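The aim of this short unit is practical: by the end, you should be able to scan a pair of folded records and say something sensible about each. We start with the first protein, listed as its amino acid sequence and then its structure tokens.
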Amino acid sequence: MSRKLGTRKQNKPIITLIGEGITEQYYFKHIRLFYDYQFSLKPYFFGTTSLVDMDRKISEVLEGGGIAICVFDTDVSHRDETESKKLQSLHRKYDKRKSVIFCDSLPSIEYWFLLHFVLTNRHFKDAKTVERELRTYIQNFKKTKSFLENENWVELLCSNNKLEVALDRARNFDESGASYSNIYKAFDCFRE
């Protein structure tokens, strides 16, 4: 007896997050918990500080038939010509692939967090400047494991519809501004 063709349901590709550090890793870990989004979040795919490593990890995800969401800061590539060229090369390689989503933020992911509270795309000198501003709203914010592993700070970011507000704000600022975040693209992918 032969089986019917076309009756088997296609599996959705696995979404895998690739990120720079523990801030991104814990943020998305808490987001997944709060919203029950389906994506892979493994320590192996975090701690990527070089664009070469990110490229290698993207390739691994694509070889497995998955979707790679790359979360990283672009402050260094805006200051350093060599890093800027590497980032441009990465974009040329993957921009036309729907299975690779770049969710970069300038200067850093903390700017994305700030959008939950303030409508701004002003110039921030560096990530530390954004962190100081963010502490106005999340008083004890620190990029330490002991702070980040506690979900309360992400719960605050998501309370009172602030996540939706941040998503709208991020969509309205493009990459030509003094500050921007493409983190909203990850949420668009999660919600498909």
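Turning to the second protein, read its sequence before its tokens, just as you did above.
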Amino acid sequence: MNAKDLYLTGLYYTFTTISTVGYGDISGGCFAERLVCIFYLFVGVLTYSFISGSITSIIINYEEMGSKNLQQHKILSKMLKDNDITSDLFYEIKTVLERNEDQYNREDLLEFLDDLPIRLKIKTVMYVFKDAYNTIQFLKSGTENFLSWICPLFE
């Protein structure tokens, strides 16, 4: 076994061990097979890490929003108890808070769009802003990439 094969075999077993795939019954036998296995192991670990990080981020953002809404409702309940506000005022404030939970502002939309993969972002922008680019003459001849860049900037 020459030095090149020896180093590649060591790298192959290192990647197999780190990725916890295991050696299994079938493994790369020659130089090319081990090189392909190393590539697939590397891509698999990166993909898994990206997906688990994205899911964690989504869960954290969701819980932050829920905690903010819960805090607002706690403050409102405390105001009702401490300041003897009328039930009409209480329900009016509560209605506004609940309506605000269902709405999103421009910054939320831009942040949401920036988190999407580029192809999905383009499709989403084309759907959300279809009225804008269909009514503005200048935008009718624009490409999807241009429209996905310019449309979210509208106020």
